[in-house]
Amino acid sequence: MLTRLRIRNFKVFGEVNIELGQQVVLVGPNNSGKTSALQALTLWSKCLSKWIEKRGESNTPKERPGEN
Question: What is the 3-state secondary structure (H, E, C) of 42-54?
Answer without folding.
Answer: HHHHHHHHHHHHH
